[in-house]
Write a structure and sequence with these properties.
The protein is an alpha+beta fold. About 30% of the residues lie in helices and about 20% in strands. The protein has two helices and three strands; from the N terminus they run H-E-E-E-H. Strands 1-2-3 form a three-stranded antiparallel beta sheet. Strand 1 and strand 2 form a beta hairpin. The longest helix is centred in the last third of the chain and has 15 residues.
């Protein structure tokens, strides 16, 4: 099964507004689940760094990956960091 991982440009396109506020986004392997995760560093004053799953069935094509990352941005990330 193909597995698309976003590059820095794709992450900037999707999460740019968050990046402009100092959040950092890193891809990291999640070996117990056999996939990668998107770790979000919320800032220098925060020890919180949520990890969002980049599930293989959501990342089969660049289009699917973009849709999944947009869903993470719109529904899961705001639980940890609110844009004001």
């Amino acid at each position: 099964m193909p597995y698309y991982l976003p590059d820095a440009e794709s992450l900037e396109e999707i999460f740019g507004e968050y990046m402009n506020r100092g959040l950092r986004f890193d891809l990291t392997p999640v070996k117990p689940f056999g996939c990668y995760g998107l770790r979000v560093h919320l800032g220098v004053l925060s020890d919180v760094a949520p990890l969002f799953g980049l599930w293989p069935d959501k990342m089969e094509t660049p289009e699917q990956a973009q849709q999944w990352l947009e869903e993470v941005r719109d529904t899961q990330l705001p639980e940890f960091y609110q844009l004001r």
